[in-house]
Structure formats: C-alpha cells, structure tokens
Amino acid sequence: MKVNRIGDQLFYRCPCGDVHAAIVGGPGQKWTWNGDTEKPTFTPSMLVTSGHYVTRKAGEELSCWCTYAKENPEENLPFGCYRCHSYVRDGVVEFLNDCTHALAGQKVPLGEWSR
Question: Does the residue 91 lie in any domain?
C-alpha cells in the first residue's frame, strides 16, 4: 500500500523525506483521487511548505527554522525550511522545478507506506 487513509485524508511518504496529506473528501475537499492505494493520482498538484516558504498574511512576521538553526547551532534539527511541489500520477511523484530539495525536476515512484 502506497497511501494510508484516515477519514477524509490520504497520507503518503514522499520521496523528499516528509509525509504529505491530501484531503479527498468532506466539506474541505481539496484534491481528487483515483481511488487506487497502489498507484494513486491526486489532482491538482501538491504544494507543501515549511518555515519561510509558508505564505503569510501581509505584515505578518514569523521566525523560521533557518533562523532558529542559525541561532541554535548546537541543536541537530531533523527539519528545516523547504518547498515540495509535485504531481502524484499513477504512483509516481513528479517533482516540479520550484522544489527546494535535490529531487526538483525528477520523477520518483512512491514507496510503501510505513509508520
């Protein structure tokens, strides 16, 4: 199984290293899903952001993980600021060029779901 369904959300372990979720039912539905847990397709694209890549309201200033890591170099943080933008089609993640990780522009099959 490539995705794990909990209620109206589907979770998958993205090859970028993070777990992403798609809301596929209910009043807040954002994505359509082909119903296949082995070769899922979600539309539209998936955009996941963290830290300073998160869209903020005008005038809103928030610290980000990059700033925190710079201010606390003794901590080995397992996360950071990033942007992962992709299409998931037939169980393959098609990373768009605006991703901030090394998989930008590549196509990578989804792995098995594991907890």
Answer: yes
